[in-house]
Specification:
single chain, 58 residues, mainly alpha
Length: 58
């Protein structure tokens, strides 16, 4: 079965959402480590979405 990029896009969206929450909670609680982890998750999500778009040829 051919991977058409949809799974990468979905994983990317999940990681971006998870990262946004961690970033906001880290900011609200002044937890720099959690904030950094959230930013990393968001970046990972953006990358996964990009891979998905490339696989779809978009």
């Amino acid at each position: 079965m051919k991977d058409n990029g949809i799974s990468h896009k979905i994983k990317g969206q999940v990681n971006k959402a998870k990262g946004k929450i961690k970033d906001q909670v880290g900011n609200a609680t002044d937890n720099k480590s959690l904030q950094a982890e959230g930013k990393l998750d968001k970046a990972k999500g953006h990358l996964q979405e990009t891979v998905g778009k490339l696989k779809d040829g978009k």
